[in-house]
Design brief:
Largest sheet: 2 strands, antiparallel
Distance between the termini: 41 Å
Shape: globular
Structural class: mainly alpha
Number of domains: 4
Strand order of the largest sheet: 1-2
Length: about 425
């Protein structure tokens, strides 16, 4: 049977069971009554957004959503393909590379060939890493990627030529460059490269004596599956990164990612439980003790609170989500354009789903202006969802005025 023929009768059964007329139901959901009537009769398919909202309002515990979501891939398959390995440094290469490659590249610092990774040199590269992360908030990822890839390889090469006391710190710094390179690759829309660089970061970290980045890599992989809409894969990967011997920061970020996976599946109880765990762990994480560089986001002061707003939308509770995101977005630093756009479009989406169309358009309009400067494949996921949500309000002047900017943002040549 088609999903439409299964979803419609079940939706009608649940609606009638709680004593709602179709008119009352359509008003509560901010959806057209005629559209809902066709969905119930199986004449129209329900979107995942509609299914989430119906699920939450009728207390169906994800059952309605599961009728419209496609079967998910095995989370264990989210590995980098062999073709991506050519982009990576490779631990054997890390341990065997000499200074020749550095001379060939002609890479110098202050006029001095980089033949050893001494403490002052590593300090310079740590400062550069922080600067590049900050630059990543206001620069297109495709512009940064060549530099990040080169720096990751170069610092790994320096490690093999360094004195023993500097080798491990150099490898660990190279692993952070590789991990950030993976994130920029994902922002550029290349999930395969993102997974490949994340795997390379793990190898570099292990060679440098840090066993924890491997667990954080699971959190990064879970982000890829989350944006692919794979709820089960997201939860499975995030749970593997929450063993008690890991630092609170990694466990907290993993719990946060698990919550997002549960939200995608419409599992509110487990989602809120995971968010509570993330809140406790992140309140006691290593960033409070000045450990640098910070693992994960460095621009969101309260990641668990921001993720709560994110999850509430996916759980079909857009009004509460909008309230939380309105509050938390005010705490974002002005220079963090990419982060502000990410949560700004999610905020606009929550307002649109709540029927606050003019407010949604006002919010989105401001961020559509800056999106060309910070193009993002992951942010575009919510831009597309916003366009679908607003298409239900074509009679609104605010929506009509926003349409040209939305169309430009979603065009294949954008960014």
């Amino acid at each position: 049977m088609s999903t439409a023929s299964l979803f419609g009768p079940e939706l009608r059964r649940l609606r009638v069971e709680v004593g709602l007329t179709l008119t009352e139901f359509s008003t509560a959901l901010n959806y057209d009554k005629g559209h809902l009537s066709k969905v119930e009769r199986g004449e129209r398919s329900a979107s995942p957004e509609l299914a989430r909202r119906c699920d939450a309002f009728l207390g169906a515990n994800g059952e309605l959503q599961r009728l419209v979501v496609r079967p998910e891939a095995d989370p264990g398959t989210a590995e980098a393909p062999a073709g991506q390995r050519r982009r990576r440094v490779g631990r054997r290469a890390v341990l065997s590379v000499g200074t020749g490659i550095l001379i060939d590249l002609g890479l110098k610092l202050g006029g001095q060939a980089l033949s050893s990774a001494d403490d002052s040199l590593l300090g310079s590269y740590r400062m550069q890493f922080d600067q590049l992360r900050k630059l990543g908030q206001s620069t297109a990822p495709k512009i940064l990627l060549p530099l990040l890839e080169t720096q990751s390889r170069m610092i790994a090469g320096l490690a093999s030529d360094a004195r023993s006391s500097s080798r491990a710190p150099a490898l660990l710094l190279a692993s952070r460059f590789a991990e950030f390179t993976g994130w920029m690759a994902q922002e550029a829309g290349d999930s395969d490269a993102a997974l490949g660089w994340t795997s390379e970061a793990v190898e570099l970290a292990r060679a440098g004596g840090d066993p924890h980045l491997g667990s954080y890599a699971l959190v990064r992989r879970a982000l890829v599956t989350m944006y692919a809409g794979n709820a089960a894969g997201t939860v499975a990967l995030a749970r593997r990164a929450q063993s008690s011997d890991l630092p609170p920061r990694i466990r907290g970020l993993a719990a946060q990612r698990e919550a997002q996976g549960h939200a995608l599946a419409g599992n509110e109880v487990d989602c809120l439980r995971s968010l509570d765990r993330a809140r406790e762990l992140l309140a006691d994480d290593d960033t409070l003790n000045g450990v640098k560089p910070v693992m994960g986001t460095s621009h969101v002061s309260n990641p668990a609170a921001m993720s709560t707003g994110w999850c509430l939308y996916d759980l079909g509770r857009p009004k509460v989500a909008a309230e939380v995101l309105d509050r938390e977005c005010r705490t974002l630093p002005p220079h963090a354009l990419r982060t502000r756009a990410r949560y700004g479009f999610r905020r606009a989406l929550a307002h649109a789903a709540s029927g606050e169309v003019e407010q949604a358009c006002t919010i989105a309009g401001g961020f559509l202006e800056i999106l060309p400067a910070v193009p993002s494949a992951t942010v575009n996921t919510d831009v597309r969802r916003l366009a679908r949500e607003l298409s239900r309000f074509r009679s609104s002047r605010a929506v009509r005025d926003l349409q040209p900017a939305l169309a430009r943002a979603l065009s294949p040549t954008h960014g």
